[in-house]
């Protein structure tokens, strides 16, 4: 359909202009041609002028085209090792080859687009090699990733080839997907004689000189009325051992050890099961625990004028770290206990009722780090401004329901980069509609976001001066962030990372060294990349780069040496994967002629998740297929799968696209106009006129 960017009434003006121009040229003057030729020339000139003026209206044509898109059939291969460990390489490789032949035949018969993917949702590009690269089995996350990536709903069916054993995330059989899911059970579901450590429970952080329990839960199959020896070792030395007799009526048995925390630092403990009988899988007979033995807890006091759900959210996050001891002092609920605190959290304090006024002054005079959590009302502005050195507030009457966004220029610490996008999914919270003045030495972690508008109003401010540190949070009602995050991700990663690192920054004494090196995580799995953060400073403690760092890392069996230069773009030093064990590192650098050394430690836990359980869970695969309108097949019956896929109807997808084509971009229109003008010129010359 022909349209113009201006009103169609302008087309009438184009016709009038064309006719008017032709009238003045061919009727107002006497010409040397007959009436027949006059009207022909009149028509040519009128049409040409009308066409030229019509182009100024920016005419365009709407075109509709239809595309046919084939449906997709995705084969999702469980590339963990458990199936190969249970069945052997030959069986798995044979099944891999047969399924590829079957898939190619289905693609040819049904005219569907075939895709092979692994658990990481990446294409499998080499059909000649069986992939077994996954260290964990996140079946639900893999299916979720396929569903979220299918924006056009082009996937007709996913065929999951797995033993049904998952060791990360929730069971996928509780969820329905926008496509059919059929499953192929590749594994051994026959129960065999085996004894294993089902779980090992212990405190990951223990205080030196205390005793802590280690609870071993032992599962068994076919070991009824037999004796099992449970051995506890520390760095290869036997600390304790117990012998238990498996009761035929018990599914699991428990053994507990009481261990004394003597040496400071990470200690490696190993639980070993010894039996005299042959068993199917001995890889699950041992587990290693790494316990961080620390000198003492950091003491934190939270002062509040009244109970509030935000207090509970803060309390839950802080108590997840056993390095902290949190004491609540809530007016008329729990009393304040005088002590040497590392951090004081003033929740909606100081207020106009002078709650805990003397205690707050004592904490401030003791140079205790303070975290101000400012509510929507009741704050004594004058007293607050006397105590707070980072933020000065003005009185306010109104509050906003708004969101926050992360300040990428914040330098005090880094939040988990994978979790930061989740800030956009958090519900709005109450924030004072306020004018305030920020100390130039302060840094802002979060700013206010109203709808899609990112303001420059600070919400979370951090300030330090010498050994004194403080933080100010202008926010109320953030307790539901923790709940919403769990509903969306089944963990509290973002919220606890924010609260935990805020508390850690406030309770850590300033390091005056010009070299800081620390591990990004305290504990890594053996398949994870070990990463160290490296920071170098000048005499006024401004971060600098380009300094050479010498790094020595020592484990129980090996030593690694590295030399590298700090870089603004890649501030962290990636070491790579390391074997299981505890490691200490020492970094040294020369800055402006002075030598600096920093030390630290981390642990690498063994990755034998795939070896712990080799009993296939075909029941879960059947439930998953049934919930998503698919079917379950045993790996020995792939011919039935071929019949099922060939009989399925996978209709093609028709997609309509509307396209706007400007006529001014089409050369043929200009050619026609030039032909008309040339014809007029030729005829006028032919009849002896110009």
Structural description of this entry:
- It comes from Marivirga atlantica.
- The structure is a single chain.
- By secondary structure, the protein is of the alpha/beta class.
- The chain folds into five domains: 2-65 and 659-686, no CATH class; 71-191 and 615-651, von Willebrand factor, type A domain (Rossmann fold, 3-Layer(aba) Sandwich); 194-294, Sandwich (Immunoglobulin-like), CATH 2.60.40.10; 298-507, 3-Layer(aba) Sandwich (Rossmann fold); 515-609, Immunoglobulin-like.
- α6 (309-319) links the parallel β15 (298-304) and β16.
- The radius of gyration is 37 Å and the shape is extended.
- The chain starts with a strand and ends with a helix.
The termini sit apart by: 39 Å
When the domains are counted, the total is: 5
What Rg, in angstroms, do the CA atoms define? 37 Å
Structural class: alpha/beta
| Strand segment count | 36
The residue fraction in helices comes out at: 25-40%
Tally of separate helices: 14
Fourth-tier CATH superfamily name of the largest domain: Class I glutamine amidotransferase (GATase) domain
- Average pLDDT: 83
Strands of the biggest beta sheet: in what spatial order? 16-15-17-18-25-24-23-20-21
CATH first level of the largest domain:
Alpha Beta
Unreliable runs? none
Any idea what the CATH architecture of the largest domain is? 3-Layer(aba) Sandwich
Largest beta-sheet details: 9 strands, mixed
**What is CATH's topology name of the largest domain?**
Rossmann fold
Oligomer: single chain
Proportion of β residues?
Answer: 35-45%
Give the overall silhouette. extended
Protein name: VWA domain-containing protein
Transmembrane segments: 6-27, 39-57, 667-683
Keywords: Membrane, Transmembrane, Transmembrane helix
């Amino acid at each position: 359909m022909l349209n113009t960017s201006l009103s169609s009434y302008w087309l009438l003006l184009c016709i009038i202009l064309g006719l008017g121009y032709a009238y003045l040229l061919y009727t107002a003057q006497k010409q040397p041609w007959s009436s027949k030729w006059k009207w022909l020339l009149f028509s040519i000139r009128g049409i040409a002028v009308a066409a030229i003026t019509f182009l100024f209206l920016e005419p365009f044509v709407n075109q509709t085209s239809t595309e046919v898109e084939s449906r997709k059939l995705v084969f999702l291969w469980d590339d963990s090792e458990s199936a190969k460990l249970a069945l052997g390489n030959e069986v798995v490789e044979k099944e891999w080859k047969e399924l590829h032949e079957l898939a190619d035949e289905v693609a040819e018969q049904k005219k569907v687009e075939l895709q092979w993917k692994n658990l990481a949702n990446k294409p499998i590009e080499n059909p000649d090699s069986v992939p077994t690269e996954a260290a964990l089995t996140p079946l639900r996350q893999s299916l979720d990733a396929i569903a979220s990536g299918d924006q056009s709903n082009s996937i007709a069916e996913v065929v999951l080839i797995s033993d049904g054993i998952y060791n990360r995330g929730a069971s996928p059989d509780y969820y329905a997907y926008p496509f059919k899911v059929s499953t192929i059970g590749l594994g051994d579901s026959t129960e065999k004689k085996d004894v294993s450590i089902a779980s090992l429970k212990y405190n990951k952080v223990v205080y030196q000189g205390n005793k802590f329990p280690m609870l071993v839960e032992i599962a068994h199959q076919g070991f009824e009325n037999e004796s099992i020896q449970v051995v506890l070792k520390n760095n290869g030395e036997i600390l304790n051992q117990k012998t238990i007799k498996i009761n035929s009526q018990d599914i699991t048995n428990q053994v507990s050890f009481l261990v004394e925390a003597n040496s400071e630092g990470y200690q490696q403990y190993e639980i070993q099961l010894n039996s005299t009988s042959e068993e199917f899988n001995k890889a699950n007979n041992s587990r290693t625990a790494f316990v961080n033995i620390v000198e003492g807890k950091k003491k934190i006091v939270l002062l509040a004028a009244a109970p509030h759900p935000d207090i509970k959210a803060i309390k839950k996050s802080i108590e997840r770290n056993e390095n902290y001891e949190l004491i609540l002092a809530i007016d008329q609920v729990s009393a304040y206990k005088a002590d040497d605190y590392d951090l004081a959290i003033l929740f909606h304090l100081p207020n106009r009722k002078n709650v805990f006024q003397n205690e707050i002054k004592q904490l401030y005079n003791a140079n205790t780090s303070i975290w101000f959590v400012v509510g929507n009302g009741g704050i004594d502005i004058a007293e607050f401004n006397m105590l707070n050195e980072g933020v000065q507030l003005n009185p306010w009457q109104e509050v906003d329901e708004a969101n926050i966004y992360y300040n990428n220029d914040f330098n005090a610490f880094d939040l988990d980069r994978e979790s930061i996008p989740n800030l956009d999914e958090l519900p709005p919270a109450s924030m004072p509609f306020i004018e305030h003045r920020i100390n130039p030495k302060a840094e802002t972690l979060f700013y206010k976001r109203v709808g899609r508008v990112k303001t420059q109003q600070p919400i979370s401010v951090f300030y330090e001066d010498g050994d004194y540190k403080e933080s100010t949070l202008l926010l109320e009602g953030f307790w539901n962030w923790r709940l919403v995050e769990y509903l969306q991700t089944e963990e509290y990663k973002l919220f606890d990372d924010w609260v935990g690192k805020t508390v850690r920054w406030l309770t850590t004494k300033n390091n005056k060294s010009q070299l800081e090196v620390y591990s990004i995580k305290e504990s890594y799995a053996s398949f994870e990349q070990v990463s160290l953060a490296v920071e170098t400073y000048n005499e006024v403690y401004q971060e600098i780069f380009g300094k050479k760092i010498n790094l020595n890392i020592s484990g129980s069996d090996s030593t690694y040496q590295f030399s590298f230069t700090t870089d603004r773009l890649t501030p962290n030093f990636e070491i790579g994967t390391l074997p299981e064990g505890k490691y200490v590192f020492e970094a040294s650098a020369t800055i402006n002629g002075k030598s600096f050394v920093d030390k630290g430690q981390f642990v690498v836990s063994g990755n034998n998740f795939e070896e712990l359980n080799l009993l296939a869970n075909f029941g879960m695969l059947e439930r998953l297929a049934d919930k998503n309108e698919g079917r379950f097949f045993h790996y020995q019956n792939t011919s039935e799968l071929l019949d099922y896929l060939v009989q399925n109807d996978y209709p093609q997808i028709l997609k309509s696209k509307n396209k706007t084509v400007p006529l001014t971009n089409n050369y043929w229109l200009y050619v026609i106009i030039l032909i008309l003008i040339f014809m007029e010129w030729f005829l006028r010359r032919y009849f002896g006129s110009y």
